[in-house]
């Protein structure tokens, strides 16, 4: 190796996982020079429609940090949108993936079935709410799971209409764009959208002040008048709206809706793609609201970062489709299934629901303390480690999207990855990996407090 080579040699990136130093370390401005180089290549090579939140080149992640190519170590309060709930590069996930990838990477489950797919289905049937007989089918992405839940509900009920809610987010494919409420950026210019989709009003206590039963009455009235149970195959709802602003419905809203669905031959689908897998302090958020969905869609946190999704639900509904009606080339890929089995083991053996509640207590107590001295924080809400602060104009209560964007941007510049959400773009959401330590979480919130104070 010549001296010139040595000078140019980039230190090998550190291995990810929990052995990464658990620290916030900002050694360049963000983005640093190497990250800027990648972002320039991205701009030239990757379609403009694919955005990014943190302007970095990620090279390793684990515990509660993401490390970039410039040697910065950022506190991760987003988990890649509630995906790496068990922690990035969790050792059990890494081991399971490495073993599987060396054995076989694909056969197509619809050609030559393998055990891990069946074991994931068994695990989902066991851990999802309700003790009725259940079955599952596996897919690649959340949107694909939602599409299939709708297919299954239509086939079972022999009806076509589907009701989704204000502020709902269900994906970016054609049917799921139709189900999603927010036009910009998810739908604008991408129509025409799938037909027979209707929208009902949500329970949004901070904005509507309605009790759960009253909000349910309002929604059911809209559904009965504008659609009619005779035409309605399914109602799909996120127990807590994710992209829509971490909106926690008032108590009694979801049970009343589920009860109406049961009484009217309508399939109640809980989209737990963001809320599932210990995130809200229970394995599934539905449990916390006292509802047992007919079908539940899962993805995101299911497999420690590998792409996998599922529909799980009542056996008689799940079995409504003829053979060959459900599936896909990659659905339930063996490497993703190995990662899911390892992740589900971690959720249970490390009692991550309990950890989510502890993380949530820190988040809520710190944010409510900030709110006490800052009228721009209109609402602090969430369940478990799915917590948000809604930022408003103190004089009018109107959403303050500009402040929200500025705060998130400055947090990232100071080495803390925070995400925003909300129909009005005025919600800062916290979805830390449950492998984050208390100290790091508190340091991230210290940075947020400094940034808010300066904003
Ligand atoms: C992310 C998300 C989806 C879409 O999942 P993808 O894997 O991005 O297709 C659907 N529903 C909810 C509630 C989500 O949070």
From TrEMBL:
<comment type="similarity">
    <text>Belongs to the class-III pyridoxal-phosphate-dependent aminotransferase family.</text>
</comment>
<protein>
    <recommendedName>
        <fullName>4-aminobutyrate aminotransferase</fullName>
        <ecNumber>2.6.1.19</ecNumber>
        <ecNumber>2.6.1.22</ecNumber>
    </recommendedName>
</protein>
<keyword id="KW-0032">Aminotransferase</keyword>
<dbReference type="GO" id="GO:0009448">
    <property type="term" value="P:gamma-aminobutyric acid metabolic process"/>
</dbReference>
<dbReference type="GO" id="GO:0030170">
    <property type="term" value="F:pyridoxal phosphate binding"/>
</dbReference>
<dbReference type="GO" id="GO:0042802">
    <property type="term" value="F:identical protein binding"/>
</dbReference>
<dbReference type="InterPro" id="IPR015422">
    <property type="entry name" value="PyrdxlP-dep_Trfase_small"/>
</dbReference>
<keyword id="KW-0663">Pyridoxal phosphate</keyword>
<dbReference type="InterPro" id="IPR050103">
    <property type="entry name" value="Class-III_PLP-dep_AT"/>
</dbReference>
<dbReference type="InterPro" id="IPR004632">
    <property type="entry name" value="4NH2But_aminotransferase_bac"/>
</dbReference>
<comment type="pathway">
    <text>Amino-acid degradation; 4-aminobutanoate degradation.</text>
</comment>
<dbReference type="GO" id="GO:0047298">
    <property type="term" value="F:(S)-3-amino-2-methylpropionate transaminase activity"/>
</dbReference>
<keyword id="KW-0808">Transferase</keyword>
<dbReference type="Pfam" id="PF00202">
    <property type="entry name" value="Aminotran_3"/>
</dbReference>
<dbReference type="InterPro" id="IPR005814">
    <property type="entry name" value="Aminotrans_3"/>
</dbReference>
<dbReference type="InterPro" id="IPR015421">
    <property type="entry name" value="PyrdxlP-dep_Trfase_major"/>
</dbReference>
<dbReference type="InterPro" id="IPR049704">
    <property type="entry name" value="Aminotrans_3_PPA_site"/>
</dbReference>
<feature type="region of interest" description="Disordered">
    <location>
        <begin position="1"/>
        <end position="23"/>
    </location>
</feature>
<dbReference type="InterPro" id="IPR015424">
    <property type="entry name" value="PyrdxlP-dep_Trfase"/>
</dbReference>
<dbReference type="GO" id="GO:0034386">
    <property type="term" value="F:4-aminobutyrate:2-oxoglutarate transaminase activity"/>
</dbReference>
<feature type="compositionally biased region" description="Low complexity">
    <location>
        <begin position="1"/>
        <end position="12"/>
    </location>
</feature>
<dbReference type="GO" id="GO:0047589">
    <property type="term" value="F:5-aminovalerate transaminase activity"/>
</dbReference>
